[in-house]
Amino acid sequence: RLNRRKLLTASTTAGLAAAFGMPLLSNEAMAQAAGKEYVFLSIVTQVPFWVDYRNAMTDLEDLMGIKATFTGPLDFDTAAQARQLDELIARRPAGIMIFPGDPATLAPGVERAVAAGIPVTCCIGDIPDSPRSTFLGINGVQAGRVGGEMLAQAIGGKGKVILGTFPAPSTLERVEGYKQIFAEKYPDIEVVDVVNDKADPSYAPTAYLQAIQANPDIVGIGGTDGDSGKGAAIAVNEAGRKDIKIVAMDRNDDMLPYIEDGTIYGAVAQKSYLEIFLAFHMMHWQNTDALKV
Q1: Residue from 161, 155, 232 nearest 192 by CA
Q2: Which residues are within 8 A (CB) of 63 and not within 5 positions of it... i.e. 6 or more apart?
Q3: Half-sphere exposure (CA, 13 Å, Cβ side) for 15?
Q4: φ, ψ dihedrals at 39, nearest 5°
């Protein structure tokens, strides 16, 4: 009997070969993978957004025989993330996947990791000025444009809105995407505030409530991070403003009830499970030379 994760693992594994022409790991490569540690160094790790990544890592441990470790600062602490990267390099795992809080702060550490022979990949956000192997993730600007189009449809193409984010380059790109689509297609939509919700589930509702109180004539909220949706939903309920349309980002389990009851109009989501599934395989292919192209 397949559960959701087993079905997703099976379909993802088969789909790689069929859709992208990528080989599955050979028995020899699987043997070489056994016991190796691959690490996902993230940031704001306290948030529920990471559930799909954690599920994928658990499945990859079973599938590849590896040790998969998830770590990173609980909040948006870019200096702490850089220190943890140096600590990981000293530990010499088989590969490191990074969601960067600040690419410039992490780039020197990526240089050191690659120089030490450790493959590095990036997800969600990139570190382009570094020798990382690849970036796996969505286009942030395009994701913002999709969210902006959705919000514009929800509010009838006009009115004042606020946007929610936190200061990671990938989420700030989504803010730019919202602004782009409004400027190009919806000149009657005005962004009156950009709220820093700190990607903090406990702080986000307060941040959005204050923004609503400061801008009582808004008709919509566009969120660009995983905590913006629930935070905004709690805020509009507390303010008695369920007329405000909300477009969220991602599909956190604790946000889904607000979509079901109509408080959140909709959400833009990325293929989180697939990102890490591909990244860990790619790093292992680098280590074993198992991928021939």
Answers
A1: 161
A2: 9, 13
A3: 9
A4: -120, 135
d(CA 128, CA 284): 21
DSSP per residue, 185-204:
H-TTEEEEEEEE-TT-TTTH
Q: What is the pLDDT of residue 2?
A: 33
Whether the CB-CB separation of 228 and 198 falls below 8 Å is answered with no
DSSP-derived letter for residue 49 is G
22 pLDDT more than 60: no
Neighbours of 234 (CB within 10 A): 18
The pTM of this model reads: 0.83
Q: Angle formed by the axes of helices 272-288 and 51-64, to 10°? A: 40
- Distance, in Å, from the CA atom of 38 to the CA atom of 282, rounded to the nearest integer, reads 11
pLDDT at 25 over 70: no
Token look-up 């801008």 returns: 215
Q: In a 10 Å sphere around its CB, with 0-12 CB exposed, 13-18 middle and 19+ buried, how is residue 85 labelled? A: buried
Enter the tokens of residue 184.
């190009």
How far apart CA 282 and CA 92 sit, in angstroms, is 17
What does the block give as tokens for 260? 């079901």
Confidence of residue 288 (pLDDT cuts 50, 70, 90): confident
